[in-house]
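General substrate transporter
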Amino acid sequence: MGKRYNWMCAGIAGSGSILYGYDAAVIAGTFAQQGFLEYFKPSATILGAIGSVYFAGLIVGLFFVSALADRFGRKRTIQIGAYIGLVGAIFQTAATKIGLFFAGRVLAGMASGIMLTTVNVYQAEIAPPHLRGTMVAFQIVTLNVAGTLASWVGYACNFSHNLAFSWRFPIAVQCLPAIGLIIGCFFIPFSPRWLISKDRHAEAQAVLRRLHDDHHDPTFWEKEYIQISAQLAAEREEKEHSSWTHIVTNPKELRRVAIAVAVLTCVQTNGAQTIQIYQAVLYAGLGFSTRQTLLMAGVFGICNTCGGTTNLILIDRVGRRKLFLVGLIALSVWLGVFAACSAEYGKTGLKSWGKAGVGFVMVFIYFFGSTFAASPYAYAAEVLPTKIRANGMAIGLFFANSVTLIFSQTAPIALDHIGWKFNIVFIACNMFFLPIVYFFFPETKGLTLEEVNHAFGEKVEVELTDITEAEVAKVAVVHVEETLS
């Protein structure tokens, strides 16, 4: 059952990304809908606030992740996030005042903060080493598919003569993945690492057996159980003295958290997130109509999804580190070309420059998807030890989304005042992170989460290759006895 069951669990948990991906993308189409603009009559500042308040909510959600994920488990935390997301979607859909719409965006952001952290942690903890990157990448592909769906739903609804329907219906659609996730979580197991951390060993063994029953190595799940138990026992001794302050003051933990912060932040500073949110403004600035803008947003989503699929194929073959390095260089090049096309359009007003600019945006987002769609989230979860994985992901996403909050709020104003020159900021950020990745990011491809310690020069309590047949047999006997009792 192993691989099939593992993929089913990863797929259900990964549907949390459908909620996040759809909600993050639907607002771009909403900003282009005449019905929305006429109903609320938002200024550039209000548009910026609508875009940024979502990320403010996301940051708030991050503060709850650690306590929820460690106390109630990863899967229950995902369910809680889905409930919050459902309420946020209802608020946005039913909003008659801008204040209620803002409240819905905040709740949607909170749900996304919980999802983005916990889904990645859960998938990293249930996946076998050789498929971990691919499974996390699959989650991001579903996120991109959801974003693409949001764009095309927005485009289709633009043909409606009912102006209220044209913007309310696309927002209402996000209720469906929230409901599906709430139900789906009843059919997936708790993380085996979380179960072991709570001394629920019989359950953990049963889950590991179902997830990682490998026909090539029938004893793999027993060996993995022994390794995880030994590593968590060692971490538990340290965690008695661990706290949020300890993470910052302990050099080993601080190094890992700093890498998680860096890799998650460079996703938000490379320009892709800001371009996705404010596509309507960018395309309008290149001379395109509202309907053309919505159509191009749909194409943008397809390119992003194709890139994410490429990332899914490459991540466990090429490795994380190489993808980051290639991505930072390629994204800087395409941003530079897009900026040049935008500058020429501003000087000449020629449609050909506007079309070329849009074309390079599509190339840019494909390269973003193929190198950065999933890799940073998989990598951040991998480099953090189990005892601080939820906390570390929350810290990393806090910094990353704080940066996004700033960009989201300032982007409409910056595009109004400096136009294409705003791209230089993203190019500079990419060049800043390039040497950091090259000198400080170790490769984690193919390692168990416990073996990642080797990449940091730290001790692995038990090596899989050192586990004897007698130890494996003992685990098997205990598992049978506890199952029968």
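thats it. DSSP finds 24 helices and no strands in the chain. Residues 2-484 form a domain with the Growth Hormone; Chain: A; fold (CATH 1.20.1250.20). bye
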